[in-house]
Design goal:
- By secondary structure, this protein is of the alpha+beta class.
- The strands form nine sheets. It has a nine-stranded mixed β-sheet with strand order 2-39-38-37-36-34-35-33-32, with helices on both faces.
- It is globular.
Length: about 650
């Protein structure tokens, strides 16, 4: 494998100073760490300064995410975090990144214009409210192109770099409309299509810019692909609906106007397909059938396409020769997660790769060249991660389910170890073998094993599996999957069954609370981050643009029978069964899970004398994105595990 020497970034070396400025006590002799001014903390004891000193190396990790290429300078645009995620340009492999944006709010995306690269766009919201606006970046300043209203997403450039298409909810707050503009002149903005519902977006523009592919997301198992004539606004469905549900992923125009897409039409797993314009039927292009294709990009010269296969959570990079349809050789990569797949105008394939031992770096290769080129090196000097093992079991109904187990070093931590079960969000998500970030501290320094289950409803295992938890009648089947994992883990000689805890964010926060209720004798403590406590009030309070999408997943609270069942399975209804201490983390501006969901469960637990630590960020939304907030949340979590999982606190109702 060809490697190039890479320099450690200046922003990485400056990280320790930023951390000290944001979190160390004002008085250097003080014994505890002060919370950032934006946090409201209740029920939490002082965080020892010594804990911060020990955790520093784990808090300073960085990752680089490839966002695109500059078509003229042949540099790469990346997203990377200092106090918040910003945009940087890397001129050459190993070069120091040049910072392009400097706002306090995280920038979630960016892109140079095709052909000339004369315009750079960025996407950001305000204090986590997810009302994203599109900005033109000039000399470090971000100039809004979409004002301050609505949720503006899905930017796609025309091939000539003259215009962008994007989706916006600013007309009604509920429906997603499609607009086109020249970002050099926001006055050119025009409506192309008024959408109904929140799932419309541009997928791609034709080579001549007269047509576009449109994507309409309905649910994780149902979505549709359309083509629109941009002059007449005539719209037609490319693949007509069938009795069997099917969905699409990415879609793009290929050479000669071919329509290529990811779909699971007529199959269990998603595959690469060419859509026949006459019949509307997809024709499979890739040979793999047991795992799903999750992304693809086409060489601008029509020679090949690159695609990523999700093989039991591990990303596999593949190349396909377009003229012949035959596989091409791709460089071998370590097991991990590939994101940001991109093909440069000159045919170089770029991507970001995160593994258990690397937090995420940018790589590229020439399909006709000798090997890989590494552009960034984010993990230099960081503590190593641990490779996970797959734990597979059969659930209560015989369904195979699996998860990832990270074990502490047995030489340093002999004997049975405590364990935290960590649920992913979604529920249409998947726990995958990427970098654990600060959570490596738990494994390396505290000797805690971490187990990441993929219960039914997770993606990555086919469309039947992902739908097995839909609706209020099947929701708790996912919680019953936890019992099968517990049975297996209790028999593991490396796990201490008397010291287990549970954690999760968003839907994982619900799973945390539900697991504490169903398995009160198994879990000593739980951490629920931006989690659902009452399905009815959650559905009534979640962002209007996404409410119907969530009703398809959880149930419709407007239906009396479903409302009763949703109430019955809500953790808040059964909060009296939670015997363990709970740490609750909340973003005050969360548009997905209303902050009141956290307030209610904290109030209910404390009303009966239970232990509930609560951390609220006034400048965050659905999770903590700003480094000072995220670092303090991490320290509080470590303190919580030390007290209630590693310590001798009683596994019973506390008398706070």
């Amino acid at each position: 494998m060809k490697k190039r020497k890479v320099m450690i970034r200046g922003w990485f070396l400056a990280g320790l100073a930023a951390l000290a400025a944001s979190l160390l006590p004002h008085d250097a002799r003080a014994a505890s760490v002060e919370a950032p001014a934006s946090l409201i903390v209740s029920g939490v004891p002082p965080v020892p300064a010594a804990l911060l000193e020990q955790a520093k190396p784990y808090l300073e990790y960085r990752s680089a995410r490839l966002l695109g290429w500059h078509p003229v300078r042949r540099s790469v645009l990346i997203g990377a975090r200092d106090d918040s995620r910003q945009l940087y340009e890397v001129a050459a492999p190993g070069a120091d990144p040049r910072q392009l944006t400097f706002g306090e709010e995280p920038v979630i995306g960016g892109e140079f214009s095709p052909v000339s690269g004369d315009v750079m766009l960025a996407l950001a919201d305000r204090q986590g409210d997810e009302n994203y606006q599109i900005f033109r970046v000039e000399d470090g300043r971000m100039i809004s192109l979409t004002g301050e209203e609505g949720r503006n997403l899905g930017v796609r450039w025309t091939r000539d770099g003259a215009r962008i298409g994007y989706s916006t909810t600013r007309r009604t707050g509920l429906d997603t409309d499609l607009h086109i503009m020249d970002p050099r002149d926001p006055a050119t903005d025009r409506l192309v299509m008024e959408g109904r519902g929140g799932g419309w977006s541009f997928a791609d523009f034709s080579a001549d810019g007269t047509r576009a592919l449109l994507y309409n997301y309905i649910s994780v198992t149902i979505s549709r692909l359309f083509e629109i004539d941009l002059e007449t606004r005539a719209l037609r469905a490319l693949v007509p609906p069938t009795a069997e549900p099917f969905a699409f992923g990415s879609a793009r125009y290929g050479p000669g106007g071919r329509i290529l897409a990811i779909t699971d039409f007529g199959a269990e797993h998603r595959y690469l397909a060419e859509i026949d314009r006459a019949t509307g039927l997809p024709r499979r292009l890739n040979a793999e059938t047991d795992w799903s294709v999750e992304d693809f990009r086409i060489d601008p010269h029509g020679r090949f396409l690159a695609y990523v296969l999700n093989e039991n959570g591990v990303s596999r990079l593949r190349l396909l020769d377009l003229p012949t349809g035959r596989p091409r050789a791709a460089p071998p990569l370590p097991g991990g997660i590939i994101t940001g797949l991109s093909v440069a105008p000159w045919g170089e394939v770029g991507f970001s790769l995160a593994t258990a031992s690397s937090p995420g770096d940018v790589w590229s290769f020439d399909p006709d060249g000798p090997g890989l080129t590494r552009w960034t090196q984010s993990g230099a000097g960081l503590p190593a991660g641990v490779e996970p093992e797959i734990v597979a079991v059969k659930s209560f109904d015989g369904l195979p389910v699996s998860g990832l187990l990270y074990r502490p070093d047995p030489a340093r931590f002999p004997g049975p170890r405590p364990l935290v079960m960590v649920f992913h969000g979604g529920p249409e998500g998947q726990s995958r073998p990427g970098f654990l970030g600060p959570a490596n501290h738990s494994v390396n320094e505290l000797g805690i094993a971490l187990f990441f289950p993929n219960v039914r409803g997770s993606t990555g295992y086919g469309k039947t599996f992902v739908a097995l938890d839909n609706g209020p009648l099947r929701r708790e089947d996912a919680v019953r999957d936890v019992g099968a994992f517990l049975k297996r883990l209790r028999r593991d000689p490396g796990i201490d069954p008397s010291r287990m805890a549970v954690s999760g964010a968003s839907y994982g926060g619900y799973m945390t609370l539900a697991s504490l209720i169903r398995y009160p004798k198994d879990f000593r403590a739980g951490v629920s981050t931006v989690g659902i406590s009452d399905f009815v009030t959650f559905l009534e309070g979640t962002g209007e643009y996404r409410r119907d999408l969530r009703r398809l997943e959880y149930g419709d609270e407007r239906d009396p029978a479903e409302r009763r069942k949703l109430k019955a399975i809500s953790p808040l209804t059964r909060a009296n069964r939670i015997r363990a201490p709970v740490l609750v983390v909340t973003g005050a501006n969360d548009p997905r899970v209303p902050p009141a969901e956290a307030d209610r469960i904290v109030t209910a637990l404390r009303a009966r004398g239970g232990t509930a630590w609560h951390v609220v960020a006034e400048d965050e939304g659905h999770g903590f994105e700003k480094k000072p907030n995220a670092d303090y949340q991490f320290l509080v979590t470590v303190l919580f595990w030390q007290r209630y999982l590693l310590g001798t606190a009683p596994h019973a109702l506390s008398s706070r």
